[in-house]
């Protein structure tokens, strides 16, 4: 249910995600997995376009921040990216698979505590695009959540 809700939200409010065919595939106790086809996110070299890869990691991490806000029953959260770092390690030659890690319990508790006291908090979220068990893109983003 949560996956469908988040996917609906991004496809409605961030139309480019629908054009990129970004899909939320799985959410479990450790990660969110998102995918997008190579054929419409391709560059002139036949590999995934860097702009698409960057967008997918940013949006997937935003989805994680949104998931956490739902988990903590936050009403109408405003979620924005504050800063990020992306390393493009190797080309992506197949359909794109992004793994976004769920922040650990301590990070989540700190987030909730700050939101409860200041109505605002930030959290660092880590995403990786992996192909053939190798990291192709490594992303860290800091997201601010306000209520």
Automatic annotation (TrEMBL):
Residues 4-146 form the Thioesterase putative domain. Signal peptide: none annotated. It holds the Pfam family YiiD_C. InterPro entries: HotDog_dom_sf (IPR029069), YiiD_C (IPR012660). It comes from the Bacteria. This is Thioesterase putative.
